[in-house]
Amino acid sequence: MARGNRSENRLDSPKGMRTKIVPRFSDRDRFGRFTEWVARAMGTPGFLGILTVFAAAWMVFNTVAPQAWRFDSAAIGFTALTLILSLQASYAAPLILLAQNRQDDRDRVQIEQDRQRAERNLNDTEYLAREVVSLRLAMRDLASKDFIRAELRSLLEELDGETGKTKKKNRDRDRRELDE
Q1: For the chain, which residues make up each domain, given as ranges?
Q2: Which residues contact 63 (CB under 8 A, 6 or more apart)?
Q3: For the segment 111-159, what is each residue's pLDDT rounded down to a tens digit?
Q4: How far apart are CA 47 and CA 88, in angstroms?
Q5: pLDDT tens column, 88-110
Q6: Could you tell me what percent of the chain has a pLDDT over 70?
Q7: Could you tell me which of 10, 8, 3 has the C-alpha nearest to residue 19?
Q8: Residues 6+ apart with CB under 8 A from 81
């Protein structure tokens, strides 16, 4: 086992076999969701209200409290408060930018999907328009109202003629049967 650990740290072993000096985030999506949560939370009136109350309470306490309890001096401009707010801002800005980058990536994917969907819809619409035109042309060439009426009349006459012949044959047969 110890031998395997030594080979993992060797530079001549494959990169995947070596241990990483700086660990990477195993779940980038979780960190991305965290950045989005921070960006959403910092953009709310509630966050601004809490931050305002925090800063006001800090200044009031360090101004009114007994000298032994004060931890930040008003005389030098509340240096600790300034440092805390600067630290908060220095972390907030990159987190907000990361959240915006994730949103830009999602928007880019959505735009591409919308473009593909619109292209498919356009192709389908063009296909259906061509089919409708071809059906109209086929119907115009195939049958007009007058042509259909004429065909129906000739079929009716033909059926009437066959019906008449059938009736005559049946009458003739009936007469022969009676004669016998």
Answers
A1: 27-142, 152-180
A2: 74
A3: 999 999 999 999 999 999 999 998 888 777 666 777 778 888 888 888 8
A4: 12
A5: 999 999 999 999 999 999 999 99
A6: 80
A7: 8
A8: 55, 58, 59, 62, 72
Answer whether 63's CB lies under 8 Å from 81's CB: no
d(CA 104, CA 110) in angstroms, rounded, equals 10
Q: Which residues contact 31 (CB under 8 A, 6 or more apart)?
A: 25
Q: How far apart are CA 49 and CA 51, in angstroms?
A: 5
Rounded CA-CA distance 96/90 in Å is 11
Q: What is the pLDDT of residue 177?
A: 72
Rounded distance, CA 82 to CA 52, Å?
13
> Would you call 92 exposed, middle or buried from its count of C-beta atoms within 10 A (0-12, 13-18, 19+)?
middle
pLDDT range class, residue 32, cuts 50, 70, 90: confident
Are the C-beta atoms of 63 and 72 separated by less than 8 Å? no
Q: How far apart are CA 146 and CA 160, in angstroms?
A: 21
